[in-house]
Every structure is written in structure tokens, then in C-alpha cells.
Amino acid sequence: MLETFDADLAKRHIEGLWKMYAVPPSKEPKPALKPYLWKWKDVYPDLVRAVEVVELGVNEERRVLRLVNPGMQRKRSTTQTLQMSFQIVNPGEIARAHRHTIAAIRFVVKGKGAFTNVNGEKFEMAPGDLILTPGCSWHDHGNESAEPIVWIDGLDSPLVHYLGVGFFEHFSQERQPITQPPGYSLARSGTLRPVQSGSPQTLPYRYSGEAALETLRARKGDAGSPYDGVFLEYVNPLTGGHTFPTLSCCIQMLRRGERTKGHRHTSSACYHVVSGSGSTYVGEEILTWEAGDCFVVPPWSWHNHANGSRAEEAVLFSINDSPLLESLGMHREETLAE
Amino acid sequence: MLETFDADLAKRHIEGLWKMYAVPPSKEPKPALKPYLWKWKDVYPDLVRAVEVVELGVNEERRVLRLVNPGMQRKRSTTQTLQMSFQIVNPGEIARAHRHTIAAIRFVVKGKGAFTNVNGEKFEMAPGDLILTPGCSWHDHGNESAEPIVWIDGLDSPLVHYLGVGFFEHFSQERQPITQPPGYSLARSGTLRPVQSGSPQTLPYRYSGEAALETLRARKGDAGSPYDGVFLEYVNPLTGGHTFPTLSCCIQMLRRGERTKGHRHTSSACYHVVSGSGSTYVGEEILTWEAGDCFVVPPWSWHNHANGSRAEEAVLFSINDSPLLESLGMHREETLAE
Amino acid sequence: MLETFDADLAKRHIEGLWKMYAVPPSKEPKPALKPYLWKWKDVYPDLVRAVEVVELGVNEERRVLRLVNPGMQRKRSTTQTLQMSFQIVNPGEIARAHRHTIAAIRFVVKGKGAFTNVNGEKFEMAPGDLILTPGCSWHDHGNESAEPIVWIDGLDSPLVHYLGVGFFEHFSQERQPITQPPGYSLARSGTLRPVQSGSPQTLPYRYSGEAALETLRARKGDAGSPYDGVFLEYVNPLTGGHTFPTLSCCIQMLRRGERTKGHRHTSSACYHVVSGSGSTYVGEEILTWEAGDCFVVPPWSWHNHANGSRAEEAVLFSINDSPLLESLGMHREETLAE
Amino acid sequence: MLETFDADLAKRHIEGLWKMYAVPPSKEPKPALKPYLWKWKDVYPDLVRAVEVVELGVNEERRVLRLVNPGMQRKRSTTQTLQMSFQIVNPGEIARAHRHTIAAIRFVVKGKGAFTNVNGEKFEMAPGDLILTPGCSWHDHGNESAEPIVWIDGLDSPLVHYLGVGFFEHFSQERQPITQPPGYSLARSGTLRPVQSGSPQTLPYRYSGEAALETLRARKGDAGSPYDGVFLEYVNPLTGGHTFPTLSCCIQMLRRGERTKGHRHTSSACYHVVSGSGSTYVGEEILTWEAGDCFVVPPWSWHNHANGSRAEEAVLFSINDSPLLESLGMHREETLAE
Lengths: 338, 338, 338, 338
Hints:
The structure is a homotetramer.
Chain A: H1 2-11, E1 14-16, H2 17-20, E2 36-38, H3 40-53, E3 63-67, E4 83-89, E5 94-100, E6 104-110, E7 114-118, E8 121-125, E9 130-133, E10 139-143, E11 149-155, H4 157-163, E12 168-170, H5 184-188, E13 192-194, E14 205-207, H6 209-218, E15 230-234, E16 248-254, E17 263-265, E18 269-275, E19 277-282, E20 285-290, E21 294-297, E22 303-306, E23 314-320, H7 322-327, E24 333-335
Antiparallel strand pairs in A: 2-21, 3-4, 4-11, 5-10, 5-12, 6-9, 6-11, 7-8, 7-10, 9-14, 15-16, 16-23, 17-24, 18-21, 18-23, 19-20, 19-22
């Protein structure tokens, strides 16, 4: 009789709560997202193969390999809110100028001589550099060197798709004109700024990879975080707040032999190994990584990191969605009792 | 050859962007969400039938009819971020005390003599009353009258599920003890408040339905909003900001014969008709509603409202996700040129 | 030789720091402001005499007795930042409509039937009522009853004078037209508000005296503040923050026989005794007060209050400058060790 | 008869408002502060003479020439809220480590090889450098070179004195130990910051003079401000907001032959001419300045600047109290109609 009722309701686009509560609600987050590791030794040959196999055309203007978490089979994304991908750009190739609601970052993995133009300013890209393309900023990129270049794309696209609020627009030309002098954004975010009201809150920006490594080395002697070693955020250059409202970028150094303590939090993160090797323990799983690899730590999963090497530091770049959860009052953290 | 490559990539949980871009990105949001109308004359008999058919037990302690948008077949929710449902509570029935990350509101449709206890305070529920149960507050409810009571539940559950950050906990007893005097929350949010620092930002609260109608009537002569008539938000009683960080509650009056202008915005809304009748035009569709009905307006859909009656005002209660979009910098609105 | 040098410097409007440091800097604030008590039994006859002696004319349109702290002989004000005064208004008298940078409050001491018009809204004034006139709002007042009325004016005029930023303007007519319906401000600050952006942050407002007493009585059983008994702030009705950016209004009840603990803070306060009697200990001094009296507690002075009566509660209204000091990061408090 | 009444009131520390309103209130600010110019060619010999005449001892440990505005004869300060002074430090001299509520800045005029230690970090001082000593931070300074050094002190001391909230404390030793590595503050305010909550909002800091000039030169082609040429603020390195809550530091370049438009505002400013020469028109007065001079522009005074030279840019450093006025809602500006 309940079955008949359920069927009748379904016709009217109604569903009894009892159907949902056939499974009682979980006391804690049980993420669909899985801990997962993508190996550079697999990914790099795939990138090379993509160059051979994928012909660029109108709708295929980029050779991008999207990391799809095994727990996100329907959403086809790296986490529920974030997308991490590898992009390879051959000498001479460009991506047409466009803009979208989605905010993006690029982190350069390999090769020199690429560029991203954002809102009329050209940003050179060297290994380790991080480039911010805030939501709704015009951008295009290309490779002016003689070598293929590889970078990581980080985007809040799964969030934007989920919310159903994405706009997309092509620029009137293939490449936008460079209207700003080099160092324009750097100057606007420096400690000397034009006196004016109604300043913007986001800015296209390039964080130098070399400078980041230098900062990490300079802080090697710090206590650091018990859960993350020397752990730094790329702050919003205008306000000192999170990188973006939807996404925070971080870089961390696990010192020789360092093994961090376990904790868990409601934010999730995608990591990329910049250098060194080690392991990340997520719940029951061990993700054993080396330079170039990427991996995911799901929400509310106990995890800790270990740099197994006594000879070399390990450096991890990561993106996470803690700014979103904090602004909703849904960020929560738990640390392992001693 | 691309197909082989795609298959190989899939084994490694990787996907080429070209697969996604087989369909070029849309210039504007193309919501999966559909405009849809649920008729009270269908829903009410279903509620009555639920009382007969659904036996309450351990996992089925509530008779709740969840409105499932035809565009949300997989998510089984009213919009991508919000859930609107009808609940019927028979005399003597209670819902066990519990709390969860999900924030909830109740809007009373029919019947007097129900109550919701939140964080030790008892809130009486009369038709038109709105009760706030902020995320993580203990709550239980029941019906002490001789008549069944019907209310609307509004929740940010689809957002919490999407983010994968939901906690849930039963209270140690069936009903929480009432530890606060009547009017406790009202007193804490009045214009005279204890001098103290570190005040909370959310509060359990009851907005009187009678007072809401009186306020609407008092403002009948206002210009109001060209898109929404006399349009009021239930503000956070502590800060004057949005009702919740995830969800805003509003009530509006379309005056006799009033026909609003069209606009569209990236937020989406679920409406419940408190009184009167009229039509809402959403894109190509006309939703013709009367008292007790519920309907959905998807993101970025042109819409306007009309009160067809020259004799009676129409009053609409609604919930929407504009606070979330605003905090992400993704709220956008467009109005129809004259 | 130093003297010659000092004299030469003085001619050029320069002064050696050594002249200032002839007295070494004090380790702690040594306020010029003195603890001081004005007795109602003196003030009231003075108000009556003012009616007889002071003829109202173009530049003397108000009979206001300004309390001048003995430590503020040059500034002629109640504290360095605040002015507290008594005003008496005879039946039929009005004060011309005007506005100024200075923000003002009125607290009614005696008599019914006066009114203050602020920005086109008429506010009735009964004993214990508090009326806010935010900076730059048009206001005028009068007495439509058959009895003289007495109220307290609280202003941030010493701060505005100090800063040298005061504007003043007469309205085009003696009295401003009433353009808002009764309850207009109350409605704008209620929990149901028009949905709009760019809302103002201050509002003309009336806090009912009866409601304030009722709230105090309802909280009689609270623990309250160890330093102030039941201590409530009149919060900004729009934001829940301090009454004004420059000035906070508070009301407190010292219960029968209650004697508070000592503390000191960098903010200073002017009190008015609404009802009851008691003593305030400020440093070495004892201020013994009864209904109608006013007194001052200087910055960084140890103080505590005692209601000596076992039969009656004592109620104190006060204004203080803590919002200013907090926004400058200069608010500091110290409590007496047990 | 009114006179007798006034005299009687005075005994009771009361004053009739009619005494104040003998002079009707001014429609606009009529600042006590005067436009005034101190010439370097006078000040420098005075500094040299101070070295000869003023012997340093316990209470005279600094040779500081305080600029005293002719309109501030009683307050003995440069403006109502700000103090600008010249300090000369001979080789080998130090100022004992101490801290106070007063916030301070140093701007180096002449000489290399001095240092300021703030909160355990040593900051070198070269011409044009700006050093921040936030309120309540430990500081001491000295001169390790073979030449006398001259700098400008900028303080919010008149405001702190006015408010009566100043604390002062000597460090346990003459000089504080250097506990931070060089570049410590720079690193804490860089775009890569440790991930942590509860971050401070102010920071000791050094802005390089060379970098400031370079920034000005780089912006020479900007439109700039119509009232101030190329006009830059030294922003808070942690938040991008004003330099201090009480005081903003700015530097501006008037290009060859540039003559700005007139405006006036409620904030007041103290200027120091870094290089070049020109005139500032304040009301009826012309202040004709050259390198090393200092001058004051009072609140609400029409003013504009002119660089008379066709050969050289003029650079002005200045401090002003706009952050204070903005936080009180009392900042107002007016521009000259065309």
C-alpha cells in the first residue's frame, strides 16, 4: 500500500521522506569522494600522447587531462567543488581569449616561455609559478618557447556547475591586446597604492615559483603546523585574505624525515607534488607519491603526511575549498588526541 | 584512435577536456532546474493519505512530502541548493530531538497548537509563523492540539549534501528539556541587549505570522519593488543581515491587479502561496497558483508575477539562495529593458 | 643658554620635546576628568529658575543646563568626548528644526507630551524614553502638553569640536513637515525589512522607557555583569552594533543590596539615576546618588557600584565612548583580582 | 539677573547653553588650525644647535623639535590629532627601548646608518625610508654611522592625549634584544603567509624610500588624482587598508609644471617636502615650499598644489587623519566646481 502511495506521489514529483530515511542519516560526513593518486609517470606519457592524438580545432582548443575522482563518476570532477587538471601546450599554440564565472589558477609544472594574459596584462610562466585568473577576467594563453609546456589548472568549476550560475564569453579577437605594462598587478597590490575608494577585491596575479621556494627554505626552522609542516597560503594580494572566495592555494614543505600528526576537516584538497617524495595516510589508505604526482584528500578523512627521505625536502602545492566552508560557517576541524 | 586514447585514460580516472567540450560551453546559465508548480489540492489529500498509509517508527518518524523538481531527478531535491517539503503532524505525535549541520525553517500552513523546541526554548506555531532552526541547534517538535497541523520545511540540505559536510546527532532523550523562559530569543535579539563581546551570529527565532501580515498591509502604499511588489526579507534578528548564510526567507504582497516587471538573477527560489491567487510567468511557462500551492523559479530565468484578482491581495512566502551567491561574488541580476 | 634656544624656537612655532618631558610620561592614563556628582535637588530648581530668567530668542532658543566637569574647565564639557545636559521645555515652546554633524540622544526625565521630529518622523516622548538623533539628521522638538518637560541631552559634541569637523544648518522652516507615518523607523528596523542593497547604517529611533524597565525586570534573575549588575546596551536597531559610532547608551539595574566588583577601562561614562539610590566608588571618592542625579566616571579609574537599599532596585542610564575607543584599538579593561 | 544666575550655576559646575550660543554655531568647520609652513633652512640650523645646547640625560633622551601650529597654542601640537617633529640623532646615541599607546612613524630625511628596533626586529633607515611603529610595540633607535641622522616623527599623540588613554612603559633594558631575523616582518606580510587564524591587524614595517620613488616614477604617466597628482598611500601590509586606524601615510608626485585642482575635506594633513619645490594654496594663503620644509593644511580648507618647476618633479610625504574620520562617518569632501 505504501508502494502504491509512493508511485502515486512520484507522478506528482513528490517523494516521501521515509524513502530517504530507509537509510538512517549518518552521524558524520561519509564522503563520496575517494582518496586517490594519479602518477606523473602515467600522466606525462598521456600528455605526450594527447599531443599526437588530439587535433586542436574549434571545440578542442586545449589539450587538458582532467583528473576524475573515482567517487565522482557522475560529476566527472576531482572533488565535489574543485577541478584539478594537467594541460600541455605545444610551441606556438594558443588558447583563444575568453572569460567565465569560473575562477582559475595555473601552476607551472614543466617548461618555460609560456604566458597567460589576464585583463590586458601578460604574465610569464616559469616552473613553480602560480597565476591567478579571478572569475570573470579575460584570459588567453600560449607558448612562445621551443618546448612543450605543462601546467596544472585548478578551477572552482564543479561548484559553478552545481550552482548553475556559469557565464562564458569569447573575446572579440583570438588574443586580447596587452594594454597594461609588465608589473601592473604587482604595482596595484604593493604596499604603495593609489588613494581611492571602491577598490576591487580580486586581482589577476603571478606568484613567483622561485620566491615561493625561497620563502619555504627561509622558514625551514619554523615550528610550522603539526599537521602540515611549513604550510603557507598564497593570500589575496589586495586584502591578505584567502586566495579566492571559493578556493585557497597553499604550498608546504615536509622537512627531511618529517611525519605530521593526523587531523581531519570538512574541507577537501587536491595536491600536486612539486619535489621530493613521501606518503600521505588517508584513513586506511596509503598514497605514496613522488614529484609530479597528484592526489586527493576527501572531507572529514583522517590524514597525515610523511616525508620518508632523510636527504631531501618534499614540497606540495595544493588547492582546497576552506574559504567556501568558512563563509558558510561549515568549516570544522578535529585533531587526533595524543 | 582518439577513442582508444579516451578508453585508456578512463582506466586511469582521467578524462580529456575535449569530451566535455564536444558541447561548447553555454554563454549563460542553462539551469537543469525546471519551473514547476505543486498544487495544494493535490498535496493536501496526499498529506491526509500519508497519515493513513505511513506508520511512524524508528526510521520513519515524520510524515514529510518532499517536493522533487523534475529537473533534479538524481538529486531528489526542490532546487540544487534548497529543499521545500510539506510536513503533517497528528495530535500527540512528536519528532525526536536531534541536531544537524543543515539549517531549517518551518512556515506554518494549517492548524494551531504545534511547537518546535530549539536549544531549550519552546516556540508555539500558529498559521503564518516562521521558525528558524539554525544549523547545529537542537530541535524537536510536536502537536499538542486536537487537529493535524501542516507546515512547510525549508532546508539547505541539498547544499550540505553536495558539500559532503553534514553531521547528524540524536539528543540523549526523546524531547529536550525546556531550559529557557518564553521570549528568551526575542529578548536576546531586542534593541536592549546584554553588553558582552563575542556574541553569536545566529539565533533560534519565531517571526509571528500575524505581525508579518500586518507589516505587509502597513506597507501596501509603498512603491515596493518593480519586480516583486511589497517585498520583505525576514532578517537575521541579531545582525540585520540575511536570514541564514545559505538561505534567505522572504514574504511579499502582490496588490490587487498588480503585475510586476520581468527580471532574472542567478539565485533560485521556492515559493509557497499564503493567500490569494495569480500567475507567475517563467520564460515560456505560466504557473497559475492559488493558496497553498508551491512553485520553483530556476536561476537566470526571466520571470514576473501577476495578481489577477481585483478583489484580493496575494501573499507569497519564499526561500532563496541569494546569500550564498552573494558571498561568492556570483550573484548577478538583469532587468527587462522598458 | 637652553632658555635662549627655547625662546628662539618659540618664535618659529617650534618646541623642544625636552620641555614636554620635564615631566616624565605617565605609565598609565592620568585623566584630567574628575569623578563628579550633580544633584537633582540642585539641578531641578535651576531648571525652574532658567524658565524664569532666560528669555528665549534668536540665539537662546533652548533652556539647557550643561554639566561641566571640574576637570574640563577649558573645554566646558562633561567628559573629553561627551556632553550631558538637562533641558527644560515649557508648554508651547519649540526648538527650530536644524541638523548638525553632532549625534544626539534624548532621555526623558519628567513630563509627558513632548515630541522630537527626526527626518520627517514624529517621536512622542514619555519618561524613560530614549530618542536617537543620528549625526546629520534634521530634528526639532516641542512640548504639546500643559506641563514643563525635562529631558537629558547626550551628545558627542566635545569630540566633534575637538576634531574641528562640525557642520550646522537650519531647516528652511521653523518646524519640519511630518512626512512619515507613525512607526516608520520601527518598521524599517523590524525583523521584516524591504529587500534592498546599500542600506543606511543609522536610523532615528525611539526606545520605549516602559519596555526598557520591563526588560530589566525580566532579567532580574540573570547573573548579569559582575561589574554592573543587569547591564544592557541600546543597540543600533539596524545592525545590532553600538548605538552610535561615537557613543553607546546603556541602562542597568543594581538589584536590592547588590554591590558590584571593581574594574577600570579606558572609556569614560556619564550616568543619570533613573530610580533608586546608592553609591558609586571611584578611586578614593564616593558618589552617593539618588533619583535624578548625574555623575561621571573618568577613564582608567577603579570603580564599582552599590545599591544600599534592601527595598528597591536602582536603575542607571548612561552614555559612554567605548565604540570610539574600540574602533581605534584603544579600549582596554582591567578587573580587580579577587 | 541672568548674570547672577550664571554665577550661581558656575558654582555647581553647570553652564547655560545660552553662554555658548552667544556666538551662533558656525555652518561649516572653522578650524582653529592654521595653514603654516616651517622652512628647512630654519629648522636644520636649529637641529644642529640642539645638538650643541641640549644635553641628553634621563628625561631628555631625544633631541626632537616639535612643530607647533600657531592655532594650537594650548595643545602644543601640529594638528588637533597629529604631531609632526624633526629628530636629530648623533653618532652613537640611542633612545631607550619603550612602548606606548601612541602609534608612530619615522620618515628619514638625512643620513644613513640609523636603525629602529621594533618588537625584536631591527630596521635599517636610509633617506626616504618609512618605518611603522604601531601602538604598543616595543621600540628603540640609534645611530651606528659617523654622521648625524635626521628624521621626521609622525605620531597620533594629540589624539591619545585628548582621549586620555595613553599608557607608557620602559623596557627592562636600554636596548631590546634582536630576536627576529632580518626581513621577518616583510615575510609575514608577503603574499605567502602561514595558514593560521586570529592574525594580528598591524605590523612593524619598513617601506623602502628607493622603492617609493621608483613607484612614483613608474606611475608618472598615470592620470593620477586631479587634486594631488600621483598620490599613493602606504597601505597596511597585512590588510591593504589604511596605514594605521588613526593615521594614514601618503606620498605624492607633482609632475613638472603640474597644478592641481582645488578641493577641501574634513581631514587635516601635515606635509614634508622630499624633493623639488612649489606652492600650496590654502584659502587666502600661499605656502611656498622647497625640499625639507614642512607645512599644514587645516580641515575643510580649500587647497591645491602647484609644482612651479618645469625641470624637476616635486615629491611630498604626508600624514593625515582620514582613517579616524572615516570610521566615525565624519569624512566629507567637496571639490571646486569647474
